[in-house]
Amino acid sequence: MHRWIKQSHQLTSPRGISTSALLCLLLLFVSVACAKQYDTEHLYTLGQTAEIDDWLVTVHSFSILPADQWHQPQESQVLCAVELTLQNNSRQIRYIMPEKQMMLLDRNNHAYVLDSSASVMAGRLHNWFVPQGGFDAGQKVYGAAAYQVPANAQHIRWVFRSGLLPWSGSVTFVLGDLSKQ
Questions:
Q1: pTM of the model as a whole
Q2: Which terminus in the chain has less CB density within 10 A, N or C?
Q3: What are the backbone angles phi and psi of residue 149, rounded to the nearest 5°?
Q4: What sign results for the dihedral spanned by CA atoms 118, 119, 125, 131?
């Protein structure tokens, strides 16, 4: 019994705590370093299909959506949509949380999140809905991610992240400038 008390005291001593913290930090660095590395240099364009972590991702179009009397963009902004197809190419159910895994970036790498008014307009005009939730193995879903962005946004890119973890893979599609839409 006396030996157990002595050993447990060693674990709670400042030296034991710092050793444990250092070991945890080392394990974290090793796990991040050993995580899959992805080619961030390759960019995709409209119509191409990218494969990332058993997802097949195709962006078909990028378009400005007209507003209506109930769904108006803020001043100097426009509603736009990225028309896409997602396919779960794995053998298990996978989940998508679009507000965390689909983002629009501009020239300054400013990220735009999904916009509810733009999503309503995409659904109304084109029957495009935001792919989200569970995807069965092999399931293919067609829809759109819709955003509100400045009317003069340039060098727009759409990024799909394959998961929620920081080291999840991602693919980037070059969409161009809004002025050319």
A1: 0.75
A2: N
A3: -135, 165
A4: positive
